[in-house]
Amino acid sequence: MNDTISSDSNVTESDLVALRAVAGTIIPASEQYQIPGADDEAIFRTIVSLVREQGDGTLKTQLAELQSRCQERHGCSLQKLSPTDRTSELKDSSNARFLYRMIHLTANAYYQDGRVLASIDLKEEPPFPGGHEVPQGDWSLLDPVRKREPFYTKV
What we know:
This protein is mostly helical. Helix content is about 50%, strand content about 0%.
């Protein structure tokens, strides 16, 4: 059996708790703006879903390496570190690929959540074709391009 995070049988509860801690560190909740952090249940479910869609084991491997370093340096797991220590561990250059990937996954999932979109005055729908008018430009600007001889080889 391959060691990917794509199936529930390979994802341990400890992995999920650590991933949730990482997500919450990347985007914490804001009481000021009354929006959830990325460790919110619904948002985290989306993160896990995105991870499963990718279906490779590198994230699980990188997470295990990060957990191992935390255990060596601090004597505890990543999720038990203070937010400041967790942030500095994530910023460590040896975790750059993991952090980049988690930032991408976390932001992607976070900005799909309706509460977050509402807080920044966006609707939970694509801007077009929702009836929005697209202003027409000056199509005559393309006339020189239309008149130009083709620069490609016809096949």
